[in-house]
Amino acid sequence: MNNTSNLKRKVQAYLPRLPADLFKLVVAFIFVFPFYWMFVTSFKPYIETIQFPPTLWPQNFTLEAYTAILGKMNLLSYAKNSVIITLSIIVLQTVVMIPAAYAFAKYQFRGKNLMFTLVLIAFMIPGQITFITVYILMAKWKLLGTLLPQIIPFGANAFGIFLLRQSFMQVPDEIIEAAELDNASQLQIMTQIMLPMSKSTMITIALFSFVSHWNAYFWPLVMTDTEKVRPLTIAIERLKDVEYGINWNILMAGNVLLVLPVLIVFFFASRKIIESFAYRGVK
Amino acid sequence: MLQQRGTGRDSFLKKTIAPYLMVAPAMAFLLVFTFYPMVNLVYLSLFDYNLVNPVKKYVGLKNYNTLFARQDFLVALKNTAVYTGAVVILLILLALLLALWTQKDRPLNRFVQTATFTPHLVAMLSCAMIWAWIMDHNTYGLLNVVLGFFRIPPLRWLNSSATAMLSVVIVSVWKSIGYYTIIIMSALKAVPTEIYEAAELDNAPKIRTFFRITLPLLSPQLFFLLITITISSFKVFDTIRVMTGGGPGNSTDVISYYIYRYAFSHFRVGYASAAGTVLMVILMIMTAVYFQVLSKRVHYQ
Question: Which of B56, B80, B121, B123 has the fewest Cβ atoms within 10 Å of its own Cβ atom?
């Protein structure tokens, strides 16, 4: 008896908030639905994509779009390029970033402020400014037929250096001095003391890099003129030109291939990623 | 800072040279792939130079004269400004609203935040393609079907110069709103709760608390967002190239697409560099303002 009246009171207290909560669901729906639509379209036969009214679930569920992109269009070979490029960038950036961040955090040297300002400025300069000269350089070095033009220009990750420096600054000097007394080399200090203490920052930086280079479109567009070096994004964009008209089911299947890895990573670490992305804004 | 402490001369030398060796690789990459290209862009803009016939001819400021005399560049510049203005205003307003609205830590609010944040992680290419599909102008285009449900006549979206820019703005705002909401949220969390408690004790109405307390405290953060969004909007490329190709006509042509076209389709590198220099100057001004305010703010803290 008492329980039901309690429940009643709770429901009555909640009722005024119901419209706002429903509206929140509508807002969330607007952001999730387009991805649902991408998945659903990718499982429809071509004829069903151009049928009126559109179907919210495939009536003739088919994998024909996927057999097309994985077979004839061979998207996996482009995905392989994307994986190689993204991993190489992350490795290269890590190797370059750790000593730089360490020096900026723990050493005093002439020109330090100027150099650190240069790092911050570089963070603001987009590829749309640098691509002409870098393209000419790469042509001169005869590298345009390789994956390198998509990797080495990103060797220095300005934002990563900034973040990692912040993290290294938190490590007490005493720990480093103690290690030095024990005759530890600078390399040992970096890899055995600084890195383990900045693990989460390193992971954050690697995730940023993964997302931005896996998704990159402008840079590979200007740096690739042969099929064998193109990454997934460019291959998907070019699905639009083939055959007659646009096969939306094939285009969406291609995008599923591009979006899925990112969403999977996001799914496993969602809150953490969101929080670390916020960090970028509150320097 | 570490003590420059060492027993012998060797160790002292090591200590002085070591930091330079450590920053050298990073600085080398930045010099070759960021700063040299910036300088070289200005240099190239003074030449008549194309990739097909690589003979450089010095022409002084001729490229700039041509640039500002050409209608198509002025249109691209104007479109970029319109796009930036619309995106900046919509993003800041909507992200602020969304942050305030989902501020309280509840499962539903967390769900809304996660949902709105998701597109930020997805490639702009995919977002642009998915929306181009949703905005398809044919009868089977989903957005028009939904509009028809509310008895609104179908729009031509990307296929009409009246709505193309609007469509691109919608997609850009849709993609980044969750990201900026999170940033504003973390700024909101930094506001000491005592201030709100004091306002509550005074029985101040919520609206007044917002305008008198929250907004002034958030304003530095909002200003940084304003600059950041302006910088990222001025270089917009992916959506334009994928969704409209600058069209219909040149109703959605923007600076970076203009630079790309002249460099890689018309091969007029000198001319494209002049356009690139204009973009660079705009971005540098924004960056300078950003750092100016940042240094002041750090100073007062």
Answer: B56
